[in-house]
Fold:
Amino acid sequence: MSTPAVSTAPALASRRRLVTCLVLGALAVGAAYVLVAFVIHWPDWAEPIARYVLTVGLPATLQVSAAAVVGATVIGIVLGTLLTIGWLPSRALIRGYIEIFRGLPILVTVFIVYFGLPALTPSLKFGPLTATAIALILWGSAQVAEATRGAVQSIPREQHEAASALGFGWVGRHRRVILPQALRRLLPPLVGLLVNIIQNSTLAAAIGGIELLQAAKSQSERLTFFPPAGIGEIHAFEIFAGLMVLFFLISFPLTRLAAMLEKRLV
Structure:
């Protein structure tokens, strides 16, 4: 009876290390925020800019990223699983979808959604942030679909046969046996996708969306105006260097998490 406990010990230790790293990463980000917001003495021009970027730009970036990640993950997993079916018409349609949106530059997809769809019908007119989220869902779901296909096909054939022998149909076999194992292998690419989506959310600035990059850019331009709108000074380097640090604080823990998951789970 002691064998199961011994076999699960490495998995429990791995989960504890993962949780510890996540907690430490969250504490590091929180400490950096406290340091930036309350400890460092900023010039008079910097505080309004930091407040605007953090209260307007950051929430918009997080909203676009969250919607894109959820949509891309759900659609991509469904399409990637269906891609393993032997029915040629469905495979051809899904393969065409994947190749189109993987091959297009994301900015082109953004322009198609924002400028092209309203030309077809006014009901398909979206705001800049919504259009960017839709474009990222299209691009991200193509990435996830291809990764899901590989993860599902990497499951040994014996697993499929054993599930069929137990009376599971195609849906039950994938829902209860195949996908739980495939999703374990899919976690590292999903975390990497989240980082890419956060960084590519800056494309919203190209169509007037106010996210982190556009918020910083607009404030940098405002400072160059003479009073009362600005102060007649150029501080673009300081502003965009601060934006670089903010993106690093968001992305670096996620890239480390993806590397750890890939090492532990794949």
Notes: The chain has one domain: 46-265.
